[in-house]
Amino acid sequence: MATADGTFRYKERFGDDMARTYFRRVRDRAVSSVGLGTYLGDPTDAVDDAYYETITTALESGCNVVDTAINYRNQRSERVVGRALADADADREEVFLSTKGGFVPFDESRPADPGRFVGDEYVDSGIVDSADLAHGSHAIAPGYVEDQLDRSLRNLDVDTIDLYYVHNPETQLDERPREAVYDQLEATFERLERRVAAGDIQHYGVATWDAFRVPQSHEHFLDLGELISRARAAASEVGNTATHFRGIQVPFNVLMADAFTMASQDGPEGDQSVLWYAHEAGLNVFTSASLAQGQVLDGIPDAVDEKLRGDTPAQRGVNFARSAPGVTSALVGSTSPEHVRENVAAGTYEPMGADAFDAVFE
């Protein structure tokens, strides 16, 4: 698992080449503010090989945040992350590793009959009740999430995951009331608190797409304050003195800035964006889709682009995401060692200051 000593050793190795704010904190760990995502790509051996090279390059270039999920590329992404972690010139204690559970994963390739696979592998085996499945492919029930966590530990071949996310819990809102989703999340948080005590994970959180960047009236809205409250109740139930609910993941980029502009969360002094709410609540924020799967490269408005530092559109796009208040690390997906070097090099430039970032939206 990532440790304070290990991550600060990593920071000392690469920090002199980076701008002052490149490394940030998750509790007492030092983490790079450019992270590597592993969602993109087909589930093929060729893409596995490309990811292996990309992940090792990232870890050996100054990026010590790696994010994945069990369903990414039919479990292949987790497995190649595990191989790269074992072989890269970086100790496990230096790397902050996150993964997710929620969407039912296939195994290596898409089965001819997905519905039958889900029934045989998960429902008939008793791992998940069919009533807990949304769209036949997503669950956040405690027993199911624990099963997914165990599979992720095996796929990654690690003893401990640093941050484990419940993946897109808002998917459940399509088929059950919001209060029922909160109740199920609290039960799952209780299981995750126990897994923290067992040493299987260090922290947990939620990775979302819509939940925190839509208005309260939206069918996919979730209240972050309520999730924090449920996590505190879960920690209390298992006898933990404090919750280990530590991080959230939200999409954020120059073309999709709702996490900053949408005041959807009920703050102590009025409605505020999820970025500000999370920052004031002491949570770490990891941004997904930081380059919008490449769309940002052709779409940074001139008025914004001129305020950003970086030699390439990718670097300026990454630095936009890194500039937002409360962002710990901007995740960028890539299967190219050259691109990951370019993205990490964005960290040699200071991001925008708070006033300059705010001015973008005036």
Structure, described:
Residues 34-214 form the NADP-dependent oxidoreductase domain. It comes from Halobacterium bonnevillei. InterPro entries: AKR2_Oxidoreductase, NAD(P)_OxRdtase_dom_sf, NADP_OxRdtase_dom. With 362 residues, the chain is of the alpha/beta class. It contains 13 helices and twelve strands. An eight-stranded parallel barrel has the order 3-4-5-6-7-8-11-12, surrounded by seven helices. A two-stranded antiparallel ribbon has the order 1-2. A two-stranded antiparallel sheet has the order 9-10. The radius of gyration is 19 Å and the shape is globular. Helices cover 39% and strands 17% of the residues. 50% of the residues are buried. The mean pLDDT is 96. The protein has one domain: Alpha-Beta Barrel (TIM Barrel), CATH 3.20.20.
Describe the structure using short key phrases:
single chain, alpha/beta, TIM Barrel, two-stranded antiparallel ribbon, 12 strands, 39% helix
Short description:
This is Aldo/keto reductase. The protein is of the alpha/beta class and 362 residues long.
